[in-house]
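Need residues for this backbone.
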C-alpha cells in the first residue's frame, strides 16, 4: 500500500464520536492547556504539527490540528540554517506572531531558541515573557529535563504554560555529536524517567519525547499524568508531532527515519514553477483574460 499521498480532504476534520475531542470536536474557541489535560483523561490521541508562517498555519488550523508548534526547526526548515542552534529569539518571535495571526483555534506553542534560557530561570522567564507578550502564543517549549526543571517551575509559577522536551534535544547537537537515539540502556532509561518526572513536577503541561525506544516512551506515558508528545518515540505516546515540511514532503534531502510523508508538496510546487516558467517563455502567459485595456 502506498502512503495516502494527495488524499487530503478539502474540508475540515471528519466529526469525532466525542464532540469534545481535540481533533474532530465541535468547539471553535482556541484550544487551552486544560483541553490538553482532559484529552489524556479520555485517552484521546492528538496530532501536533510545526508551522512557521501564517498561511501554512491557517491551513493546519482549518484542518483541525489542535496544537501547532513554532519549532526552532524553523532554523533548518524555514530559514536555511544547518541546525537549530543559530536561530534567534527575534526570529522566533516574528515567526510565532505570524502563526498566531494565521490561526483561530489551534493552541500555538513557541520554542525558546538555544541561548535564550540556558543561563537559568531568570533568563528563561525574560525570554518567555517577551515571547508571550509580543506574539500571543499560548505556551512556550524549552529543552531539558532535570537540568531545566527550575526554569520550568519559575515560568509556570509566573503564569506561562510550558511544554517540556526530553530525550534527543537537538539544541545539544554539538555535545551529542549528532542526533542519536536516547534512553538506550538501563542508566539512560532511568535518567529519561527522572527527566520526565522532573518536568511534570516543575509544572509542565506536556512533554515531547524525541527519539527514544518505544517501550521506554510507553512506560513514561503510563507513569506521567501529563501527556507525552512523541517524535520517533513509538505509538504509545498520548500525542504525536512531526515537522510539517517532513510530513508534507517539502523538506529537501534526507529526513529522519520516523517521518511518514503524506504529500509531495515540493514536487507540486516545483512543477507549478516550471509550468509557469514555460508559459512565460512560450508566450502562453499572460493571456487575454489576465490583461487590462
Ligand atoms: N526536517 C527536520 N525534521 C526534524 O524532525 C527535525 C529537524 N528537521 N530539525 C530539528 C530536529 C533534529 N531532529 C533529528 C535530526 C536527525 C535525526 C536522525 O537522523 N536520526 C537517525 C537515528 C539515529 C540513530 O539511529 O541513532 C535516523 O535515521 O532517523 C533525528 C532527529 C528532529 N528535528
Ligand atoms: C521536532 C519538534 C518536536 C521540535 O522541537 C521542532 O520542530 O523544533
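Answer:
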Amino acid at each position: 500500500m502506498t502512503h495516502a499521498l494527495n488524499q487530503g480532504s478539502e474540508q475540515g476534520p471528519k466529526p469525532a464520536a466525542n464532540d469534545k475531542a481535540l481533533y474532530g470536536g465541535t468547539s471553535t474557541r482556541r484550544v487551552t492547556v486544560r483541553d490538553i489535560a482532559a484529552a489524556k483523561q479520555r485517552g484521546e490521541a492528538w496530532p501536533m504539527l510545526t508551522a512557521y508562517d501564517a498561511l501554512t498555519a491557517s491551513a493546519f488550523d482549518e484542518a483541525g490540528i489542535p496544537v501547532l508548534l513554532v519549532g526552532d526547526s524553523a532554523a533548518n526548515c524555514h530559514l536555511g540554517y544547518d541546525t537549530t542552534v543559530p536561530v534567534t529569539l527575534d526570529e522566533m518571535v516574528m515567526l510565532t506572531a505570524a502563526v498566531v495571526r494565521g490561526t483561530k483555534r489551534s493552541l500555538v506553542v513557541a520554542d525558546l531558541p538555544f541561548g535564550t534560557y540556558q543561563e537559568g530561570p531568570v533568563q528563561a522567564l525574560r525570554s518567555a515573557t517577551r515571547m508571550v507578550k509580543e506574539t500571543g502564543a499560548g505556551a512556550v517549549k524549552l529543552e531539558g529535563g532535570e537540568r531545566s526543571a527550575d526554569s520550568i517551575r519559575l515560568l509556570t509559577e509566573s503564569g506561562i504554560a510550558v511544554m517540556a522536551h526530553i530525550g534527543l534535544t537537538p539544541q545539544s547537537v554539538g555535545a551529542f555529536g549528532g542526533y542519536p537515539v536516547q534512553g538506550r540502556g538501563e542508566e539512560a532509561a532511568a535518567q529519561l524517567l527522572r527527566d520526565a518526572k522532573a518536568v511534570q513536577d516543575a509544572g509542565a503541561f506536556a512533554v515531547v519525547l524525541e527519539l527514544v525506544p518505544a517501550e521506554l516512551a510507553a512506560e513514561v506515558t503510563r507513569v506521567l499524568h501529563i501527556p507525552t508528545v512523541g517524535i520517533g518515540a513509538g505509538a504509545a505516546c498520548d500525542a504525536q508531532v512531526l515537522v510539517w515540511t517532513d510530513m508534507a514532503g517539502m523538506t529537501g534531502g534526507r529526513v529522519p527515519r520516523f517521518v511518514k510523508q503524506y504529500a509531495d508538496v515540493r514536487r507540486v510546487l516545483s512543477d507549478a514553477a516550471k509550468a509557469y516558467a514555460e508559459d512565460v517563455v512560450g508566450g502562453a502567459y499572460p493571456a487575454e483574460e489576465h490583461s487590462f485595456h
